[in-house]
Amino acid sequence: MRPKMWRTCPRCKKPVPPGGRCQCSARAASPAAIARAKERDRGRDRSAEPWRKAYGGAEYRANRERAIASHGGMCASCGKPVAMRQASGKWRMLPGCGVHHAKPLRSGGGNRGGNLVPLCGRCHALADAALRRRDARRSREE
Q1: What CATH number did the domain enclosing 129 receive?
Q2: Which of 77, 85, 51 is nearest to 130 (CA)?
């Protein structure tokens, strides 16, 4: 039997043992870990935003499903498809699409079905930008 040879990492050109991985090509971080790192780099403190915990609750998930079903998996603004129904009967959001809180949680809006609206990526970005402009205008007036 032939002994296994060390190989060279294609990225950093360092020797790698047989069956091993180079440290430069370690497994990529999860999208959630990347988002947390970006927020940490921006100086955002999650503990200052306790309302974010509501996104993981059973009430939010159930009302989110109802909101998507009530709109037939379509964007409430432009009518583009935003979700597909899986074989299990649950809805799966298409990439870039999401469920928007008409009144944000940070402003006292809840996870009730009437406050949740499925939107495509473009309409969601427009809605969020409008909320940011409104908040900025209010802060300037104060």
Answers
A1: 3.40.1800
A2: 77
End-to-end CA, the chain: 79
Tell me: the pLDDT tens digits for 105-131? 878 888 887 899 999 999 999 999 999
Rounded-to-integer distance, Cα 63 and Cα 101, Å: 11
Which residues make beta-bridge pairs with 117?
100
Domain hosting residue 63, numbered range: 58-141
Domain contains 3 = no
Total number of domains constituting the chain? 1
Measuring CA to CA, which residue among 117, 111, 119, 115 is closest to residue 58? Answer: 111
At 33, list the tokens: 């870990």
Q: Is the pTM of this model over 0.70?
A: no
Q: Which residue has the higher pLDDT, 66 or 12?
A: 66
